[in-house]
Amino acid sequence: MKAQQILKRLILGVLVLGMNIISGCQKNASEPTSDTTAATDLEQATGVSDDIVNMADNAAKGTNGFRLSSDNTYEGLGGCATVTRDTINHVITIDFGSSNCMCLDGRYRRGEIIISYSGGGYFDSGSVKTITFNAYYVNDNHVEGTKSITNNGLNQAGHYTWNIVATNMKITRTDGKYHEWNMNRVREMIQGQNTETIWDDAYSITGSANGTCSNGNSCSATITNPLIREIACHWIQQGTIVITPSNKPVMTLDFGSGNCDDIATVTVNNVSHTITLH
Questions:
Q1: How would you classify the pairing of strands 128-138 and 141-154?
Q2: In sequence order, what are the residues at sequence separation of 6 or more whose Cβ sits closer than 8 angstroms to the Cβ of residue 164?
Q3: I need a labelling partner for 34 at 20 to 30 A (CA). Which of 130, 208, 269, 273 fits?
């Protein structure tokens, strides 16, 4: 009898231990994480990158300057930027000066954005523009790297498209942390193509990216639903990006359903976190 009782206790102990192990594994597999570093890094890189392209285009179109606002008047970003167009050497320089200036989109900028272009006029099909930076900062975040933009002309839908290759894009924050990205994207003008004003323009962006996050992890990202940005809005308004950090769960960055606001959602392990766009 004693032997049977001992055997029963051993079997019961093994069963309890097995259940605890299974329970522990299930808990770890579904345990949510609040680490949204990869998403916030990529959101910042995407927003800064898109702003730079918009400013380069507007600087080429404008007369004495341009603005990031929703009305139809031209002002040099609230007096912040001086735009110089060298049509002989095909160079456009956007100079925000050496001190921070509050622009009309609520962001501080300083330094220069330098755009060189070839292949005919700035907006001609087949033309290529290369964007570099000289001590360029946005809200005291240092922006570096190179962007190459090729005008593809019209696609089958009759929309202008551009291939954008961003190489060694690096954003260094005020705390010294930085993140670096390489991006390959297609930018399509989906609205406002046939009007003279820029404020009804809207763009769709697709593509992928890879790089190193500010926490040191390598990351890759793919736009799964096109990013939508209206020129009259200061932020990306719609679209999703799936981000795969090394040694971290896959996360989805969702910019929303089209509202012009600075809110996005990051979902990790079926748990959603709200973030504020840069």
A1: antiparallel
A2: 49, 53, 147, 148, 149, 183, 184, 185, 186, 187, 207
A3: 208
**Which residue from 235, 217, 232 is spatially nearest to 43, judged by alpha carbons?**
235
Helix then strand count (H, E) for the chain reads: 2, 14
Q: What is the pLDDT of residue 66?
A: 47
Domain boundaries, the chain: 36-276
Q: Which two tokens stand for residue 25?
A: 């594994």
CA distance 111 to 100: 9
Query: Quick one: how far is CA 1 from the chain centroid?
Result: 71
How many whole angstroms separate alpha carbon 222 and alpha carbon 183?
A: 10
Tens digit of each residue's pLDDT (9 = 90 or more) over 88-97: 898 999 999 9
Rounded-to-integer distance, Cα 57 and Cα 151, Å: 12
Please say whether the beta carbons of 48 and 137 come within 8 A. no
Q: Which residues, in sequence order, are CB contacts of 14 under 8 Å at separation 6+? A: none
pTM beyond 0.85: no
Q: How many CB atoms sit inside 10 A of residue 278's CB?
A: 19
218-245: b (≥16 Cβ within 10 Å) or e: ebebebeebbbbbbbbbbbbbbbbbbeb
Instruction: Please indicate whether residue 68 or residue 108 has the higher confidence score (pLDDT).
Output: 108
- Tell me how far apart the alpha carbons of residues 66 and 103 are, in angstroms, rounded to a whole number: 11
